[in-house]
Write a structure and sequence with these properties.
Blueprint: H1 12-29, H2 37-52, H3 57-78
Helix pairs in contact: 1-2, 1-3, 2-3
C-alpha cells in the first residue's frame, strides 16, 4: 500500500486512529485496496482532518464520509 500513515510527524495513537478511519471509510464507500486517485483523495482528506481536529477514528470516519457524500451530491447536481 502506498500510503504510510506511520511516516507522519504525529503521535502513534493518532496515526492508528487515522488508519482505522481510512479502513472504515474505504469499506463504507466500497473501495478496493488499490492505488488510485479516489483512495489517494480519501487518505489526503483523512490526514487533513486527522491532523487539524481532535476526534476518534469513528468520528473521523463520519466526517470524511459526510464530506464525500456532500461532494458527490454537488457533482451530481451540477451535472459533472
Amino acid at each position: 500500500m502506498p500510503w504510510r500513515f506511520d511516516e507522519l510527524a504525529i503521535e502513534p495513537g493518532r496515526i492508528e486512529e487515522m488508519h482505522c478511519a481510512y479502513e472504515k471509510a474505504r469499506a463504507a464507500l466500497g473501495l478496493a485496496l488499490v492505488s488510485d486517485k479516489i483512495n489517494e483523495f480519501l487518505v489526503a482528506k483523512i490526514v487533513e482532518l486527522g491532523t487539524t481536529e481532535d476526534c476518534g477514528a469513528d468520528r473521523l470516519c463520519e466526517k470524511v464520509l459526510a464530506y464525500f457524500h456532500a461532494t458527490t451530491s454537488l457533482l451530481d447536481e451540477s451535472g459533472i
